[in-house]
Amino acid sequence: MEKWSLEQIADNVHRVEEAVAEACVKAGRRREEVTLVGVTKTVEAARVNAAIAAGLTHIGENYVQELLAKKPELHLDGVRLDLIGHLQTNKVKQVLSEVDVIQSVDSLKLAQTVSKVAANKGLTGRVLVEVNIGDEASKTGLPREQLTELLSQIAELPHICVEGLMCIPPILETEAARRKVFSEMYEMFLDIKGKKLDNIDMNTLSMGMSADFTEAILEGSTMVRVGTALFGHRVYPAK
Ligand SMILES: *Cc1c(COP(=O)(O)O)cnc(C)c1O
Questions:
Q1: Beta bridge partner(s), residue 35
Q2: Coil, strand or helix at 93
Q3: Is 227 in the pocket of ligand 1 (CB under 6 A)?
Q4: How many angstroms does the Cα of residue 85 sit away from the middle of ligand 1?
Q5: What is the CATH number of the domain that holds 201?
Q6: pTM of the complete model
Q7: Pairwise CA distance, residues 209 & 158, whole Å
């Protein structure tokens, strides 16, 4: 296991927090418009708790198994926990009431399952729709051409609410190319926000990671998901 210290994690949280604040100033936006989510895949609970102690208020986990195993050890009082990784329909039942928002809904089948499981539990499933903004065949996320149709189908489901959009853009060489992709997401976000569809309450645009969150904030992101800049390089367990 990598060496780490409470001070180092606290430093990282403060550094990233400052960079987010700076990006907001640069963008002419208020700091409260952007939420910092700490991405904690592969990060053990003690390190996550160190980040929470240093002020982190939002956590994102990728894998259902890891999330369920780690959650009892996390100091989540007042902290929001989201699922940000790809979700299989057969795991919705396990995870739905364990998280605040599922950020990775990318198909009608998954949305239907969320609504059904939520109905059984007597709640409303809060989700973001993940858009495959780079049109990459290898990536998860809904092709952007299908977004309007999916949202009109979700409007018919009784126990789900779409709170926004999420994306993991492709790796692009130039700042201009990256900002173009983020601005396209922002346009889609605004467009849907203006439509007033049932079960859609657009308030979150989740985009920007360690390497590009400043650019994402400049283009309208309301939620950045940062892992490496907070916790260092991830060490995946050997299989
Ligand atoms: C891992 C991950 C991140 C964080 O990536 P970093 O580059 O480490 O900041 C953000 N979002 C998703 C969906 C991820 O899987």
A1: 223
A2: helix
A3: yes
A4: 9
A5: 3.20.20.10
A6: 0.96
A7: 33
